[in-house]
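Why run this: before we spend reagent on co-expression, it is cheaper to look at a predicted model of the complex and decide which construct boundaries make sense. The entries below are exactly what would go into the expression plan.
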Amino acid sequence: MNRRSIPLTAWIGFAGILLAFICAIFAPWIAPYGETEIVGDVWQPADAQFLLGLDNLGRDLLSRLIYGARTTLFVALSATVLAFSVGIALSFIAAVSRGMIDMVLSRLNDLMMSIPTLILALVVLAVLPQSLTVLILVIAALETTRVFRLGRAVALDVAVMDFVEAAELRGEGKLWIVFREILPNTLSPLLAEFGLRFAFAILFVSTLSFLGLGIQPPTADWGGMVKDNKDGIIFGVSAALLPGAAIAALTICVNLVVDWLLRRTSSLKGGRGDG
Amino acid sequence: MGKLLSVRDLKIEATSYPPGEPPRRISIVNGVSFDLEKGRVLGLIGESGAGKSTIGLAALAYGRGGVEITGGEVTLDGTDILKLGKSGIRGLRGRRICYVAQSAAAAFNPAHRLGDQVIEATLRHGLLSRDAARKRALDLFRMLGLPDPESFGRRYPHQVSGGQLQRAMTAMALCPKPDLIVFDEPTTALDVTTQIDVLAAIKHAIEETGTAALYITHDLAVVAQISDEIMVLRHGDMVEHGPVRQIIEQPVQDYTKALVNMRSIRHDEAPDQSGALLRMENISASYGDGVPVLHDISLHVPRGQTLAIVGESGSGKSTLARVATGLLPPSAGRIEFGGQVLPPARKARSRDDLRRLQLIYQMADTAMNPRQTVREIIGRPLTFYEGLRGSARVARVKELLDQIEMGSGFIDRYPAELSGGQKQRVAIARALAAKPELIICDEPTSALDPLVADGILKLLLRLQEEQGLSYIFITHDIAIVRAIADSVAVMHGGRLVRFGPKSRALAPPFDDYTDLLLKSVPELEIGWLERILATRRRESAGH
Amino acid sequence: MTGFPATLPRPRLWLRRRFPLLARIAERLLLSILLLLTVSVLIFAGVEALPGDFATTYLGQSATPQAVANIRAEFGLDQPVTSRYFEWLGNALQGDFGSSWASGNSVSEQIGNRLGNSLFLAAVSALIAVPLAVGLGVVAVRFRDRLPDRLINILSLAAISLPEFFVGYLLIMFFVVKTSAAAFPATVYDSMSLIERLQVIALPVATLVLVVLAHMIRMTRAAILGVMSSAYMETAELKGLGALRSITHHAAPNALAPIINVVALNLAYLIVGVVVVEVVFVYPGMGQYMVDAVTVRDLPVVQACGLIFAAIYILLNMTADILAIIANPRLRHPR
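The model came back. Tokens follow.
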């Protein structure tokens, strides 16, 4: 792997993701104003003092965008990490043990996946109390089903290979087989899947917030900012479009990196390398 | 007879895309020339990567998957077909030049009836009316010996067997009465007993129709039956080109000599085959669905000797290996190892039981973890069984590398950085690392080129002599059985049809199946096919 | 025919061997019914899992013990869970979803109108998106790795990254605010003619199409590429067939099943998309109804909408699978 083989699109993706994370981590130091600080008139246009103008309550849009990165990334990333840990663990257990455990887990997963994600989320959120933890858990639960499906498929692909059987015949334990034989051969597709799930989580948390069911005000988050400012659109105020563009830009960046990861994922079975 | 096809200084390149590296151009064929007269058959022979299929497809002005013809001429009746435009080439393909692929199962469209596919090119090129084309297809089905020729064309590809598909594809190629047919390993994927019928059908059809042909294969014995001339290829270069008789009786080049004199290995069977290291008694087995795949099989391997289990695909020979290793516990019967009863399931066997019986796989590619280096692959059994670590382990890995004639320079390579033969050697070293008493070899050489396979067999025999190893060698190749076995087991349809010392098992009087099997294996002898077919005719007339 | 089965799963095996097509379709139908029942249990149980008693939630501050008991009796909450489930399911099957907690109106009546509106929106979007996606997918394959393919790849990659609401507001900003070419909000009422309706939903449809299209093109491209790289396409080329004949006669019949799958999968995005788009354009459909209900925790409405959305999704997938089964020559023409 040399640096020249990474295409320009992937570099753009990395740069965008990095920028978003810098904003998120150093928000209080970067943002010119406070997250909930009212600094002027409602929907005051952009000028030298307020680079992107003010929002529906007279708060600085740029500052809220920077703080919003924090919330949006935090929720999306924790949900993805959680979904990944649980999903991969369960899918590998299913793939390695097969039989009943696999059957039960897979059927359960099919059931979860037979309801469209947003609809399932709406039903659950109608019942559960509104909190950040609930939000993360709900998104993570929905993501887990997707991770499970891919993880199981990828693990099964490797688990049927002769070298895994060879390890079993040697007498190796389950842990060795999962961590030393199977996992190293699934890293590439799993990494790409992590990116895909992260992109999905960003879109999903934003959508929920936009519908008023995600992160609650006054905390700034990109989807919620669209909701707050949407009434300005018909007056020609573009305050709602900025956070929307931020979501889009970040998701595009993640997808650019994923696209590159998927392309370079070479087939494990490979050829004999003769031409 | 005039020149039909003339290939001059043909150069073919491809672009390879190694993962994580910039793409690079590689040469596949470096300036090959030959002529083919009307009605003659030229055999192209070589190992994988020799460029033989690529040359065959170039005769149709076609490059598969990014392959590009970069130089030279391919003239058909005086026209350079490489200079023809798209429509010119379309007018040739399926009309004057036809192609028979290695895997007819994939080459037929699953959505259409065989008959319609057979006559499609003839109709689209406007050569015959639909009725006349159907009639011709029917004649061809008869000529090729297909069952129920009248209704055969109404079937779908998935409804007929592999051997029948290959014949149907030949009919498809013959239908437009082409001047030239390119046969691309048409029998390689078939079992030997099926191969002989297809081979006979193809030979008969070529003679009847008088078409010229390029016959591509890696099997010299096959090509000797069908061709008038042979061209030997290696790494994209022509090695030798001449009439069949000259090539197989007086080869000039060293490489051709090696090909002709292959299987020079001799191993005389052990006189005493009484004791048993592994004994399987009355073994029956089935997979999850309850359909039995092994029926009451009893056999044994003496210590320090080789038992060859021979059979075609579906005979149950690999299943028997899975039973022996404990991967598939038998539904009935018992297994003894070194005089002790071995638990049927792998999970119930002790670590020492597992150590003493090792397995070598057919595909070395998938038998080794691509993320581990040779050091880890060979070193793991050392640590696992003997607790060897650090420099002691490295020393032992190097010693094993020396034993498989590779040397310690390979210790930090990944499997992807090894050739097919080297991978199989590393797999052998991994088995040796366990200090086993018995190694089950499941077709370890069938995915390898013949000369490489030869090297592996010699290595296995040497190791047996030095270390007193026992082998169960599973194969479909009678020549290998003759070369290395002490005792032989012939399997067919999940049953053991023959078992005994090599000298007795492979000598008459035969049972019907062993007779058929032995007679179906092509021999490197001109006129072998005719001789066998004549015997068959005589026998069936005599019955 | 040889004997009938000794062990249990044999009849199914026998059926599969004898009538593979019918057997698989029947299996798929049964599976869908089972799935629908399980989903209904899930949705019903989800509400049961509401922390605290929901009569108390419903009454809020004014929850005297007597009032709670009255409410429980009124909603039948004093009955055991199973009998309530079967009553709810039985009523739902007859189109009765009870009455809304928020307005007291019949849920079915509200849904009746809105379901039609939502289906209209989704159907028009699908009618535009599906042919467009398949067409562009074919173009991408035809010009594989050349400019049109790369362009389609980059643009669709960007499009799948855009949240529906962003696309919606962008379109509103451009076509309503800047150029006044379209209407907002997208209000529809009974007396409207078809043409008028179509005009009103132009922007919501455009939003949905854009979002669904991107996914669909990418997957169609992959599906067609899979077919185009198979050996029988090489056979067609080596028979000297023209590109048109190869594609219509050899590729199309085999590409049908994977493309049907792609379309079905994407109609799921459409369902999710409909919810968001309706909110953006203030369109009186099921999606908006459901989101409003979730906000005020109007559970009968949430249950009803959830069940209907899930049922539509399950039925769509079933239809696609059955079509794909029928399109498979191996099952249509058994050995």
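The longest strand of chain B covers residues 3-16. Residues 531 and 537 of chain B are 10 Å apart (CA to CA). Bring this page to Monday's planning discussion.
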